[in-house]
Amino acid sequence: MAPKKLSQLGGSPTNTINRRQFLGGTLALGAGLAVAGLGAGEALGVPTASAAGTKSLSGTLSFFDHQSFSNPTGKQLIAEYEKLHPGVHVNIVSAPPATIDQYVNTLMEGGAPPDLFVVATNMVPWQNVKDNWWLDLTPYANAPDPYVAGNKRWTDIVLPGVLPTLVFRRGQMYSLTTTGFDVGFFYNKAIFQKLKLKPPTTWAALIALLERVKRAGGGYIPFFCCLGELQYGDQTPGLLMILEDTVMSRTIDRLNPSDPSGAVSVSELVRGIKDGVYSAKNADYQECWKIFKSLAPYMQRGAAAANDSALGLAAFETGKVATWFEGSFNAPQITKVDWGAFVVPNLTKATTRFATNAPQRKGAYGATAGFPFVIPTETKKKGKLALAVDFIYWMSAPEQTQRYATANGVLDLDRSGGNSPDLSAFVRAANSVSRLSVAELALPQSFFINRAKLLEAYVLGQLSLSSAMTQMQAVMDQAAAQATTEFGL
Amino acid sequence: MTAIAPRATKASSRTVLAGRESASPVGSRRQPARGRKALVGYLFILPTMAFAATFMYFPAVSAVWHSLFNWTGIGNGTFVGLHNFVALASDPVMRTAVVNVLKLAAFAMLVSVLVPLPVAKLITSLRSQRAQYVWRVLFVVPLVLPSVVIYLLWQFLYDPNFGPINRLLGLVHLPQQLWLGSPSEALYAIMGIGFPWVQGFALLIFIAGIQAIPAELTDAARVDACGPWATFRRIELPLLKGQLRLVLVLNMIWTIQDYTAVLILTQGGPVNSTMVPGMYLYQNAFDNQNMGYASAIGVVMFVIMAVITFLNLRYMRPSVDYSRRER
């Protein structure tokens, strides 16, 4: 049957249509386009309101949870999600009692990985970007989360200062998370009260405070830090990254970050290393190390022997440590000491000629660590992408995020603010991460580890500044070369 | 005097053989039957050999192969020939690691003999069998503790701020040390772990060795007015050479391979002062994702251990054996 002409659709024989017909046609066209759009969205793998948040999802979602769902809250969350989607079963893939990163590599190399992963840090997907193991989740970050009422983009859920810590290379996001951690100073309220001290707001005030604690005697340790922490992502080197943001502000501007937040990408950092803009030979870089070392006279005896936060926790719990620089995840474990926390104090001209009046960032990690979700590219081939993304969306809702964060000792980094007030300093830090942090964390792990070793040697007096900087420059150059190859820069 | 059997001649041999062949049809099936038995035996050990080949020999061969590659552990890597070994030869961290492990091995070999051997002698000198048993058990019980537990305990003992050792030093007005926190002290602190170094394993080997010495030898020495020290030095010690060699070789191999204490306590620091090849291998493999270089370290460690073991076995043969009887 031949299609009718427009004039034959009940309109006038003069090829015009009346208003009712026009409106009807427009509505029909609009409905058709909407349906086509939904279908296209599904084809692209972008979950839409028709699939997500409804009971139409089904299947088994195999999930490597990095042991973060093995606690009662995690199990409860899984049960609730399965109840919400009766056709869905979440199958937890357990982590072995060994190096989890190696296990993840083995799963991926084997070619049959679980559909969804929780990993320790964003470095996990970044370091294997050339292997095409992990899915670029940027489209889903820009799509609405159906489980958050009124949400237009998933990125609107997280604190704005956290977003740069999820971005890699050319603006891609290989992980999505609403949790994280950061570093700051725990302090012993009893010691502060006894010595009539207040949390410092400037670095000079911090040094003066530590000096007072030292002079007070009584077996007090003014400043405890795990100088022997040499693993990728350890907390003590985070202090250096925070100092860099302020002291190297002009250098950061010269690196010409394209991100609106001012955060430097790994490609910009690598270019900066190659061009000598970011260099261990530069005075501002060396200044950061000197400021770090100014804490050495106040550190505990044998600071290099402390190579794990558990040792710091044990020391803090003796009640003899006035301040302790560590990660927020230690907070739930402090039971014997009445504690508070403050962020890294501001640097002023009294401390360094590089200080400016610009806002100073206080964090080093944000959402780079703290159980980010990542999805293997295999998941899309298996047709499980919608299910995996839906689970992430559901977990990103404030109710789920708060419970998950509390159960696992990480920070809730969504805008609803579900953290205990005690953690406000760490949340502030996570929401204002150093502009160099993410790029430095994205470099090959050897950069972070070797820098930590050189910093330890310099602080202990085993290396002069010039020797340390010579070796640090070699570390930078090697990391830049390796990153260029591995990330295809 | 035994009767001497007549020497068989070729002719008689052939006759015997021919007789055997013609007299017994079973003889003609004896060779194939022996072959079948051998085949069955091989089939029985085949599963074990397959597992050994897969999980022991293949990884070793793979490590040697991958030491010739720039390899992250994923994919195939890039062939670089002997580049990893050349880099290793000029790597200052590896040099430090080798020196450290040789110091640790020398110390371990020394204390594995100097302490357990006299203790074994003392235990075997006890008249009461029950007392011997009790002391033996007391010294061996620590073997059942996981080594990680022991290292964590020593980490607490060595704590520069709150550890009992420094507290004790403070009480007697001696200077407190940094122990694991000092580049100059950390390696010796690791050597000190296990004080007083009565290794249960070495103790048992020496006890067994001493008990295996024929009593008539020590009795004869006593009759000849040999004192205890002379008896020990001239009779018992030479007869314990086999046990000494075993304990020395095992301790050397264990010390060169082992890096558990370093991994838990110092991770090679402070400032690489406790770095050992095993730890450096681990760091390169899993922290730096440099599996090719780590494999090269493994190959070098294997060669060093093989050479030392060969020299040890070659030059530590027991020179005296009183157990042979003349015919």
Features:
heterodimer, A: 489 residues, alpha/beta, D-Maltodextrin-Binding Protein, domain 2, 2 domains, four-stranded mixed β-sheet, 19 helices, 12 strands, 42% helix, disordered N terminus, B: 327 residues, mainly alpha, MetI-like fold, two-stranded antiparallel ribbon, 16 helices, globular
Structure notes:
The complex is a heterodimer of chains A (489) and B (327). Chain A has helices spanning 19-44, 72-84, 100-109, 123-127, 138-141, 189-194, 203-216, 236-247, 249-254, 266-275, 283-293, 309-316, 377-381, 385-396, 398-408, 424-430, 437-442, 445-459, 465-487, and strands spanning 58-64, 87-93, 116-118, 167-168, 172-173, 179-180, 183-188, 221-224, 321-327, 339-342, 373-374, 411-412. Chain A is an alpha/beta fold. Chain A folds into two domains: 58-176 and 372-409, 3-Layer(aba) Sandwich (D-Maltodextrin-Binding Protein, domain 2); 183-366 and 433-487, D-Maltodextrin-Binding Protein, domain 2. In chain A, α10 (266-275) crosses α19. With 327 residues, chain B is an all-alpha fold. In chain B, a hairpin with a 7-residue loop joins β1 (69-70) and β2. Chain B starts with 9 loop residues before the first helix and ends in a 12-residue tail after the last helix. The model of chain B is unreliable at 1-28 (pLDDT under 50). The chains are: A alpha/beta (489), B mainly alpha (327). Chain A binds chain B through residues 99, 101-102, 105, 109, 127-128, 131, 221, 227-228, 230-232, 300-307, 311, 314-315, 318, 320, 444-446, 449, 453, 456-457, 460, 462-463, and chain B through 73-75, 155, 158-162, 176, 178-183, 186, 265-272, 283, 286-290.
Short description:
Chain A has 19 helices and 12 strands. Chain A has helices at residues 19-44, 72-84, 100-109, 123-127, 138-141, 189-194, 203-216, 236-247, 249-254, 266-275, 283-293, 309-316, 377-381, 385-396, 398-408, 424-430, 437-442, 445-459, 465-487, and strands at residues 58-64, 87-93, 116-118, 167-168, 172-173, 179-180, 183-188, 221-224, 321-327, 339-342, 373-374, 411-412.
